[in-house]
Amino acid sequence: MGKTTLAQLVYNDATINESFDHKAWVCVSDNIDAVNITRTILKSIDPDSPDQSDLNLLQVKLNEKLSGKRFLLVLDESCLRLEQGPISL
Q: What region holds the NB-ARC domain (predicted)?
């Protein structure tokens, strides 16, 4: 069993759902884009949040939403490889 498969099993487990107020699964690339990652996390817990490109404002809003709450965050690099298709050797 691979790391992503294990993470998916944990992420989708009913007991885990009861244990956390919020969950987010975010695809990340080798070139870390903090603004995009933060925006994606915020959108996953608050779909109505306005689009922002200011990292500080995004972090403040995310802090407001998550302060005092339990949350599960999965940063997954493998989903991007799956979208690109099989790698030819």
A: 1-76
Number of independent structural domains in the chain: 1
Please classify residue 20 by burial: count the beta carbons closer than 10 Å to its beta carbon, then call 0-12 exposed, 13-18 middle and 19+ buried.
middle
**89 in a structural domain:** no
Q: What is the pLDDT along the chain (89 residues), one digit of tens a residue?
A: 888 889 999 999 999 999 999 999 998 887 889 999 999 999 999 999 988 899 999 999 999 999 999 999 999 987 755 444 443 33
Token match 């069993």: residue?
Answer: 1
Say what the pTM is.
0.77
In a domain, 25, yes or no: yes
Q: Is 46 helix (H, G, I), strand (E, B) or coil?
A: coil
What is the phi/psi pair of residue 67, to 5°? -60, 125
